[in-house]
Amino acid sequence: MSHPPKRTLPVRVLLEDTRGALQLELVNGIDEGPLPITVTDIHRPGLALAGFMQNYLNERIQVLGETEILYLNTRTEDVRREAVARLMSVPVPCIIVTRSLEIPNELLQSATQHGVPVLRSVMLTTPFIHELTKYLDDRFAPTTEVHATLVDVYGVGLLFTGRSGIGKSEIALDLVERGHRLVADDTVHVTKIADDVLIGKGNHHLRHYMEIRGIGVINVQDLFGIRAVRVQKRIEVEVLLEDWDTKKDWNRSGLDDRTASILGVDIPQVGIPLFPGKNITVISEVIAMNHMLKVYGVNAAEKFNSLLIDVMQSDRQTKQYLRYDTE
Amino acid sequence: MVEFTKQVGNKIGLHLRAAGEFVKIAAQFTSEVRVYHGDRYANGKSILGLASLAAARGANVRIEIEGPDEAAARKALEALFDAKFYEE
Fold first, then answer.
1. Residues of chain A numbered 29-48 and touching chain B (CB < 8 Å)
2. Where does residue B34 rank: exposed (0-12), middle (13-18), buried (19+ CB within 10 A)?
3. Do B16 and A250 touch (CB under 8 A)?
4. Domain ranges in chain A?
């Protein structure tokens, strides 16, 4: 089900997606450049304008701030023309000018001739670059869809997986009833936003609708109110629901942690055997709390075990000493 | 009912992980498994019970198994002791 990350971004889509956040306007009416946007990095071409062409990273979005525009404006017309020509000597995806600065004619003309979109934002350069990078990171992040239910339990994102019909939705409903928050049911859209961070959200249209066998489709937000739902949540633990099987190797000690891999990110996986009458809701809450304890450095299983090993050792030493002279 | 005595052979004794291996095997059989260490008793299907026996290396534990599959259970548990709980 995993599909590769979207590898190219047309300027048209950039404009549509960021209308509010980046406040961009298209200055020369060209919304598709000679190169699509393919990387999340941004380039400021000051040195290229000044004539240093090594390491001119033309495949990136070119952002011109006050410094670059001031440089152009303080050159003679010929020098300005040459500087712009250097910038346009290789294809670039687009040019963005910040701070609502006036765009030098030579730059606008040359870009239009080369079919390069020219955009302008009212934002200051540094905040603009931060916002743009945030958007590009998100846009180019690897994504996948998993058949699962995601619930925020005490602030821990629990991803319930298991065969269809095992009761993922029912467990989520029970957790919601106890004050926890549903993120997504049935299909969870997962985005890897950093090397070790997965964010899960629901389908945009199906948001917080849920199917309960025997009842049909319900809307969790309408039934339980806004406190019962949230839009997205970091996925922290996978809870794999399985049919009860006496022969299976259930984790009994808690010393050996299993992990599951989603988009190359390893997260702890807890396999829970199910049988009628078992209160999986309370177990889910314990999984969430135990995970938080581990995050804070408290591992109950390890603590118990080291206590036990200490006891066994001191027992032995005492016995050795009192071998022939029991007190 | 079958009954036998085994010595705990692994270095750190019957700690939590070793107890986990024990219950995993014991739970596969329907027979009742009782474990004795000195005057202490534990149900062989309870991990915390087994751990609280605090049976260190060299300790002798007596095991009683009672039920329809007691012979097979004995064989499996003896093998676990012989393998030193897969730890060494």
1. none
2. middle
3. no
4. 11-140, 143-303
CB-based contact, B38 to chain A, within 8 Å? no
Q: Does B71 touch chain A (CB under 8 A)?
A: no
Query: Does A244 reach chain B within 8 Å, measured CB to CB?
Result: no
- The interface predicted TM-score (ipTM) is 0.78
CB B14 within 8 A of CB B77: no
The number of beta carbons lying within 10 Å of the beta carbon of residue B82 is 10
Q: Is B56 within 8 Å of A313 when comparing Cβ atoms? A: yes
Burial class (CB within 10 angstroms; exposed 0-12, middle 13-18, buried 19+) of A103:
buried
Minimum distance, in Å, between the CA of residue B73 and any CA atom of chain A:
13
Q: Domain spanning A11-140 has what CATH number?
A: 3.40.1390.20
Domains of chain B, with CATH numbers? Answer: 2-86 (3.30.1340.10)
Of B10, B13, B15, B64, the active-site residue reads B15
CA distance A238 to chain B (A): 22
Q: Please state, as a whole number, how many other Cβ atoms lie within 10 Å of the Cβ of residue A259.
A: 10
CA distance B12 to chain A (A): 7
- pLDDT tens-place values along chain A, 327 residues long: 444 445 789 999 999 989 888 999 999 999 888 999 999 999 999 999 999 999 999 999 999 999 999 999 999 999 999 999 999 999 999 999 999 999 999 999 999 999 999 999 999 999 999 999 999 988 899 999 999 999 999 999 999 999 988 889 999 999 999 999 999 998 999 999 889 999 999 987 777 888 888 888 899 999 999 999 999 999 999 999 998 876 777 777 777 788 999 999 999 999 998 887 788 999 999 999 999 999 999 888 888 889 988 888 887 777 777 777 766
Q: What is the pTM of this model?
A: 0.74
Fold for domain A143-303? Answer: Rossmann fold (3.40.50)
